[in-house]
Amino acid sequence: MSFYRDGRHTGGRFIYSMILLNLSASLGIFVAWPTYGEAIADPVSMVASGGSTIRPSAFEYPFFLLWTVPLACAFGAYMTKGMDMRAAARFLCIFPVCMVLCGAGWLFWSGQYFVH
After folding, report:
1. What is the pLDDT of residues 19-33, one digit of tens each?
2. In Å, how far are 76, 81, 94 from 14, measured between CA atoms?
């Protein structure tokens, strides 16, 4: 006897909560871009070897990845969850979080070596 429909566990709580996290992060970065962009302009331009601009646009190369990658991965996770590809959906949910954490850790631990 199973408590799940058709004997299968749907397992969507983690995926849907991560989709919500990715969407809220993407929307939060895009809405708060004037403040957020000024705070990260120097570290990102230093690492990306670009010119240091005081007011970067949210649509310039290194900066648009901060809000488009979580948005695209949330959409892809929703689509792959609907196609019953849970492993791909979990990967797409986790990828933006890991990307931001790895970038922040890299800037934190090796940022002193990039200061001229």
Report:
1. 999 999 999 988 988
2. 15, 11, 10
